[in-house]
Design a protein that fits this description.
Layout (H helix, E strand, L loop, with lengths): L4 E3 L9 H5 L5 E4 L2 E4 L9 H5 L5 E3 L4 H6 L3 E5 L13 H9 L3 E3 L1 H21 L7 E2 L4 H10 L13 H13 L5 E5 L2 H8 L11 E4 H10 L25 H9 L6 E5 L1 H12 L8 E5 L15 H9 L9 H12 L1 H4 L17 H17 L13 H9 L9 H19 L11
Parallel strand pairs: 5-6, 5-8, 7-11, 8-9, 10-11
Antiparallel strand pairs: 1-4, 2-3
Length: 436
């Protein structure tokens, strides 16, 4: 398993803020050094938000090096366009950045997002009510969260590839080209999506650069729009996926019947909704869209613009939902080619590392872990470098910690030792003791 968080050890002062923010308890701070358990990380980026000393960062590619090697075939995330104030319409951005040696693959991206929404709508229509609701497969962090904490819901994830991967495949097939493609990513989850895709199918994207790095570089270079006239085509549909509810709106517009949908954003809301779904409390709902970032992908940790301002810009974009018959026929034809858009294999669950490969030993360690946990203070302070007392007990059983790593247990031992010293101070050798 891989993650896309880069660790810089020297700035870390052991504040454990990152530990408290992680929703999957994937981080430890031992002897002043951060460690991330790869099998537990879902690349939500919450630890990056919590780290004020920049000890954690994004492990993306070098944008200056990529850009210096000639024309860049760039795959823009839907959040890309709302980062600019004056030329954020997709076609306007394409025209402007073409002068900067960047080819934005907008037509292929729109086709891929349309195909993804069109295919998902048809799948929902074919499902029986007891098989619904289906869950969006767009946010990699949500998929990772389900793999770890809600494995019973894996069968409900809509079997459609991420539209960004579909766009890359469409472009390579149309151009018959193997030229490297670069994705502008708004979060670490989409970096991991490329480097280690869910399933066994390799990614068609070669390079990933954070959106913040690209936008700052472009603005620093002094790019200017060649004209401030409104572009002829401003009604693209795919940028709406950058905000909460954009995907559900897209799918609903392409469905043959009225759909009942729910869209939530933020880790707390996402986990709460998945918990309700797991308990069977969402009967009558057709589709669920979850994003771990606040307000959707505009809240990604690698997005430079304020998520509120970006959401405001995107909300007022002109969108054309009525598809021309010829274009709808093209979508129907692509939908028949399931290799392009349908996931090849079911998404597997993620298992925590077992306490032992031997079953009897694992059960013995489980009993030991419960006994240790019962003695802990149960306040989950994080001073031991673990996110919870339960995680502390597990590390002790795995021989990756000591009971005295807990400050409260250490104080108890010191207090006990101090009492023993005081009692021993009054003891005299029996040879010099006098009878009274």
């Amino acid at each position: 398993m891989a993650h896309s968080i880069r660790i810089s050890y020297s700035p870390c002062h052991g504040c454990v803020n990152c530990i408290k923010s992680c929703p999957t308890e994937a981080i430890r701070v031992i002897n002043g050094s951060i460690a991330i358990i790869k099998d537990l990380c879902v690349d939500c980026g919450e630890c990056l938000r919590a780290c004020a000393r920049k000890a954690l960062g994004l492990d993306d590619d070098d944008w200056d090096l990529i850009h210096a090697h000639g024309s860049v075939e760039a795959l823009p995330d839907p959040t890309f366009f709302a980062q600019f104030g004056s030329f954020w319409f997709p076609d306007y951005a394409k025209k402007t950045l073409a002068d900067n040696n960047i080819d934005l693959l907008i037509d292929e991206t729109e086709l891929a997002f349309d195909l993804s929404a069109f295919a998902a709508a048809k799948i929902i229509e074919e499902m029986s009510p007891d098989q619904l609701p289906l869950i969006s497969a767009y946010c990699p962090s949500v998929i990772g969260l389900i793999q770890l904490q809600f494995p019973e819901l894996l069968s409900r994830i809509v079997p459609v590839k991420n539209p960004l991967e579909i766009a890359a495949s469409i472009w390579k097939q149309k151009m018959n080209s193997y030229a490297p493609m670069t994705l502008f990513a708004p979060c670490p989850a989409k970096i991991t999506l490329v480097r280690e895709p869910t399933g066994n199918e390799p990614s068609s994207i070669q390079h990933i650069v954070s959106l913040r790095k690209v936008v700052h570089s472009l603005l620093a270079s002094g790019i200017k729009a060649s004209s401030y006239e409104k572009p002829t085509r401003s009604n693209r549909r795919f940028p709406t996926w950058g905000m909460r509810g954009g995907e559900t709106r897209h799918i609903s517009k392409f469905a043959g019947r009225e759909l009942t949908v729910i869209a939530v954003s933020g880790l707390r809301n996402t986990k709460d909704l998945l918990r309700q779904l797991e308990l069977g409390r969402l009967r009558g709902v057709d589709f669920v869209e979850c994003r771990t970032c606040d307000l959707g992908c505009f809240g990604g940790v690698a997005v430079p613009e304020s998520r509120f301002l970006a959401h405001l810009r995107n909300r007022h974009i002109e969108t054309e939902w009525q598809l021309p018959p010829k274009y709808r026929g093209e979508l129907e034809e692509l939908r028949s080619m399931q290799k392009i858009w349908r996931t090849r294999e079911p998404i597997p669950s993620k298992q925590r590392l077992p306490l032992s490969s031997d079953l009897s030993e694992a059960m013995s360690r489980m009993k030991q872990m419960k006994a240790i946990f019962a003695e802990m203070p149960h306040i989950d302070c994080g001073a031991c470098g673990r996110p919870s007392c339960k995680a502390m007990a597990e590390d002790i059983v795995r021989e990756q910690g000591e009971i005295t790593d807990c400050i409260f247990k250490l104080r108890e031992d010191i207090s006990s030792l101090a009492n023993q010293i005081l009692s021993l101070a009054d003891v005299q050798p029996h040879t010099i003791q006098r009878k009274r």
